[in-house]
Amino acid sequence: TDQCAPLTFHSPLFRGDSLLLSSKTDNLESNGETKHLSRRVLVSAPTPEFNRRLGERRWSDRMTEFSKSSKRGAAVGIALISGRNVIPAMRETLSCMFKDYSKTGLRDKTDKNTIRLCDPIVDILGNLSHHDVEKAGLRCILEPYLNYSSSRWVDRPLSEQKSEFTKVSGHQLVQSLPPVPLALLFTTAILEQKIILSSSRRSILLSAATAIIEMLKPLEWAHLFVPLVPAALSEDLVQYPAPFILGIPSEDRGSIDLLNSLPPDVTLVDLDVGRVILAKSFADDNELDVGRSNGKNVTGALRSQVLYLAEALGSVFGGNLH
Question: How far is Cα 133 from Cα 315, in angstroms, rounded to an integer?
């Protein structure tokens, strides 16, 4: 891809030894023939043991057999850890690495999208699990992506880093929510409601929460704001009596049950699905209801107006985004 081009399989970025990655792909073209794709990656240090392991039985084949025999999925992964707030750089590093190593150069005949193959990256990560494999192997593979992804952040003034992070956060929120749900989220935040953001991706929670605060400017959110709620505190914080914006990872233990049994005055924003579920008792305690015998009618009318406003704003958001 144009934005993820720190490393290609035809341009030697390093001097030294090389890794030879070979993958078997079936039915990538209309004739149904099996294709063998080989890529050579130059690295900065000798990795004879890593190369030897690559020549043995492939981890991608092992994972396929394991999934078939156990009838459950198998996972091979990588995690980046840092003591600094460099989530955007880490996200871009992993995204670029996956896109670069999974591309085949072929396109699907129906939707014209690039066909991606996970076998090469599975083989790489699987081989790195051997204790006798050179530790330099992973460093050499990650180094160009880390340098590329950090170039927009490192050695820049904090004000510029903040501006860049705000821009990236806005893009992440727009990609997660369609225009009308995005407008509904904005409206509930303007009305100082209780809002819970939910996603299996923690980095998206941080980005979305940051973007919402930015959208409210020149107004300021003066209430509880916790972009990433620890699992041990989530049950207590959702009962908080004042407005809040909370980010709850849906993959945490017990999070699904918690999200399915939220208090009626909480609006749920599912960033994975791209929808906003307005609180059931929205505006029940609104001052318009005080002293009125038809309080429920007033509340229902206000709720309808909020939804109508969200649709109108959504069309404006969608037009600007388009």
Answer: 55
Calpha distance 229→250 (Å, rounded): 11
- Are 48 and 139 spatial neighbours (Cβ–Cβ below 8 Å)? no
Cα angle, residue 86 at apex, residues 82 and 91 outer, rounded to 5°: 100
* Location of structure tokens 């030897």: 52
Mean pLDDT of the chain: 76
CA–CA gap between residue 100 and residue 118 (Å, rounded)? 11
Three-class SS state of 28: coil
Q: What are phi and psi of 216, to 5 degrees?
A: -75, -15
pLDDT surpasses 80 at 26: no
Tens digit of each residue's pLDDT (9 = 90 or more) over 65-119: 877 787 776 777 888 888 776 777 888 888 888 888 887 666 666 656 667 778 8
Q: Which residues, in sequence order, are bridge partners of residue 244?
A: 194, 224
Residue 197 contacts residue 209 (beta carbons within 8 Å): yes
Distance CA 220, CA 177 (A): 22
pTM of the complete model: 0.61
* Distance, first Cα to last Cα, the chain: 22
User: How far apart are the C-alpha atoms of 216 and 201, rounded to whole Å?
Assistant: 23
Predicted pLDDT at 270: 94
Q: Which residue, chain included where needed, has tokens 């207590």?
A: 236
Q: Which residue has the tokens 């609006």?
A: 267
Separation CA 100–CA 317 (nearest Å): 33
